[in-house]
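Action item from last meeting closed. Structure (614 res):
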């Protein structure tokens, strides 16, 4: 890896020099700023070896720097070793932001280059303003990495779309969703909506695809006016079923790469609403040219930049979706419960224990999940992390790199599936044998954190920044913390990480201030991560529900969708308060009631012991 990465970066610098580019910025995004991207877009991995989902790489003539957040510190350090790239740990003392770094390093009259299709309008504009005082030129019309990757670059993904039954699974027709979107356009005094955000396009038109691993989406763009709706998608993805669907709802189908030409020819007579965090800088520049040349007006006068217009509609699940979520989460929870029983049994027997690895464990769980009736695919690569590997939040075993399991310590398993009835995500940490008192303490604190958030009642209008303290307080009171958010939204046969609602104590973007509303589905996943030793995470998915209305207002709460027991072998009752003990016993009672019917006699007997009142 050392030679190939240094060679590739050297080759990129040669191309930069030819084009007169001072610095080249690389993001981990695709043309749609997706969280997970196809192999075609894994440019950071190609250049320096880092395989995580979120990073920024800056290449200068004499140095290269990679920025990652706390989820990836350990992983990135390991993966970029020998590449000549310096790791910048975001948020750590003395570590500059990407913007601060560029502001310092870019010379006057220099040129900053990037692939304009892989940088958002918001980021591109911010960079332009940041460096304007140095008279820095932006070059967003080149794909230099594509040049050096050449014929070895993986193909742009393309798979036929599929259409889940609208009545049975979506609970709302595409026509109804388009009607709701147009009402939003009126609210914002706009006549057009432009989007490149894949999950919202799939949701809006009630279609699904297979172009991004773990995300059932198709590479596409959508454009909606007050009278018409358009879908830009690769010809090879269009099926007879999609043509019929498009005909039914008057959706005009165009080729995926036809958007720029479409925008150039469009005669705009009203404002265009779009999300600057997802529409690319290159697409925005095309829109700007079309608007300013066609209307003679400045682009700012003809656009409305608003994040999350469809996200908020999508995040609040309708009664059909909620019913399906409740059903499929029970079956998914039963699969994980079967797995926990299976792995504990395997590790108790020296003969079977010696054959178990992180990979065999993940494969067995994946097989159990695939047996559920309407299974589509995994919602992300199964994280099966033993011992020190579990301290890397997004570690996943591979055939080339995985650990052997031992009948001691803990195994962290974070996994989920896409089903026609919804998307699941769940984490449990499992004792494989003897554990230390410190492990028990940390596990129990994590359990308390998870239970406190699950059991909280809160006033309407509260957002994730309000609620995060319910999970962190048991940690903070002991001088501990975890370097990630506490919760994220969950899509319906869409992205496993869905906005706009989040649970974290620091605001990263405006969406973090989104108030919770009944129907939102969100994760609750505190943890403890001790580098080089072990990691613990407990993740339960919660549905926001109405609780009560009093003279002081409307109060909401959470109802668990996940029903998987917490590990009795890791709980230290000395740390439980009367309140958290009650919450634990109440939760385990529900687990037993809902999951037992899906288990065999031996599994049921074990579950009864796990869920016995403490």
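Sequence:
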């Amino acid at each position: 890896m050392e030679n190939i990465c240094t060679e590739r970066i050297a080759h990129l610098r040669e191309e930069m020099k030819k084009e007169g580019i001072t610095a080249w910025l690389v993001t981990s995004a695709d043309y749609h700023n997706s969280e997970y991207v196809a192999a075609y877009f894994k440019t950071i991995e190609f250049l320096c070896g880092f395989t995580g989902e979120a990073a920024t790489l800056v290449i200068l003539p004499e140095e290269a720097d990679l920025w990652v957040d706390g989820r990836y510190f350990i992983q990135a350090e390991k993966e970029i070793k020998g590449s000549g790239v310096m790791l910048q740990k975001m948020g750590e003392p003395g570590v500059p932001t990407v913007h601060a770094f560029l502001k310092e390093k870019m010379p006057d009259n220099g040129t900053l280059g990037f692939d304009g299709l892989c940088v958002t309008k918001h980021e591109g504009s911010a960079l332009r303003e940041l460096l304007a005082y140095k008279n820095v030129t932006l070059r967003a019309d080149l794909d230099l990495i594509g040049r050096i990757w050449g014929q070895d670059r993986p193909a742009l993904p393309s798979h036929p779309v599929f259409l889940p039954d609208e009545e049975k699974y979506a609970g709302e027709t595409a026509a109804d969703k388009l009607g709701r979107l147009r009402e939003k356009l009126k609210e914002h005094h706009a006549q057009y909506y432009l989007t490149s955000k894949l999950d919202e396009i799939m949701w809006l038109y009630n279609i699904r695809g297979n172009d991004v691993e773990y995300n059932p989406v198709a590479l596409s763009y959508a454009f909606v006016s007050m009278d018409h709706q358009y879908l830009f998608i690769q010809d090879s993805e269009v099926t007879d079923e999609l043509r019929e669907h498009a005909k039914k709802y008057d959706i005009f189908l165009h080729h995926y790469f036809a958007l720029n030409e479409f925008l150039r020819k469009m005669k705009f007579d009203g404002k265009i609403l779009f999300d600057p965090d997802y529409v690319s800088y290159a697409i925005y520049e095309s829109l700007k040219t079309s608007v300013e040349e066609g209307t003679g007006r400045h682009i700012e006068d003809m656009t409305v930049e608003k994040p999350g217009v469809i996200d908020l509609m999508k995040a609040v699940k309708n009664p059909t979706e909620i019913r399906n979520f409740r059903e499929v989460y029970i079956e998914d929870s039963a699969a994980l419960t079967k797995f926990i029983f299976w792995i504990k049994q395997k590790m108790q027997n020296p003969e079977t224990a010696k054959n178990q690895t992180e990979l065999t464990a993940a494969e067995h769980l994946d097989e159990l999940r695939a047996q559920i009736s309407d299974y589509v695919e995994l919602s992300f690569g199964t994280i099966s992390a033993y011992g020190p590997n579990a301290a890397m939040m997004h570690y996943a075993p591979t055939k080339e790199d995985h650990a052997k399991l031992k009948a001691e310590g803990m195994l962290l398993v974070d996994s989920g599936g896409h089903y026609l009835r919804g998307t699941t995500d769940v984490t449990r940490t499992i004792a494989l044998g003897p554990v230390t008192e410190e492990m028990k303490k940390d596990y129990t604190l994590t359990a308390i954190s998870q239970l406190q958030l699950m059991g909280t009642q809160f006033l309407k209008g509260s957002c994730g920044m309000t609620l995060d303290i319910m999970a962190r307080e048991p940690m903070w009171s002991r001088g501990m913390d975890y370097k990630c958010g506490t919760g994220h939204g969950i899509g319906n046969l869409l992205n496993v990480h869905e906005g706009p609602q989040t649970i974290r104590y620091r605001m990263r973007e405006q969406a973090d201030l989104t108030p919770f509303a009944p129907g939102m589905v969100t994760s609750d996943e505190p943890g403890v991560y001790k580098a080089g030793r072990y990691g613990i995470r407990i993740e339960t998915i919660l549905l926001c529900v109405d609780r009560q209305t009093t003279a002081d207002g409307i109060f909401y709460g959470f109802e668990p969708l996940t029903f998987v027991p917490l590990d009795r072998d890791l709980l230290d009752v000395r740390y439980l308060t009367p309140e958290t003990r009650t919450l634990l016993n109440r939760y385990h009672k529900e687990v037993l009631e809902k999951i037992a019917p899906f288990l065999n006699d031996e599994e049921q007997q074990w579950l009864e012991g796990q869920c016995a009142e403490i």
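Note appended to the action item: The first helix runs from residue 2 to 19.
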